[in-house]
Amino acid sequence: VVLRPIAAVLFTISLLFLAWLLAWKLVLVHVPLVQEIFGLRKKKPTAPKPPVRKRLTQFYARL
Q1: pLDDT, tens only, 8-57
Q2: Any idea of the CA torsion for 15, 19, 21, 23, to the nearest 10 degrees?
Q3: How far apart are CA 38 and CA 36, in angstroms?
Q4: Which spans are transmembrane here (predicted)?
């Protein structure tokens, strides 16, 4: 009598787990937002910006 509800709950949980695993492997790993949340996205190295940028300084020098 008690075994049937427990088996039903375990079956449901296992189906949910398998569905999540399948969705993760096929789709969610490739979504940039999910990659950012879980730390899977590798950050690209950025070059440091120069202390003086020429466009604005040249513009204000001409005034």
Answers
A1: 999 999 999 999 999 888 888 888 888 888 887 777 788 887 766 677 77
A2: 180
A3: 6
A4: 6-34
Looking at residue 63, the DSSP 8-state letter turns out to be -
Count how many Cα atoms sit within 13 Å of the Cα of residue 21 in the half-sphere of its side chain.
6
Length of the chain, please? 63
Tell me the C-alpha distance between 54 and 62, whole Å.
12
* Residue 49 lies in domain: 3-62
C-alpha 34/C-alpha 7 separation (Å) is 33
Count of structural domains within the chain: 1
34 C-beta neighbours (distance < 10 Å), count? 14
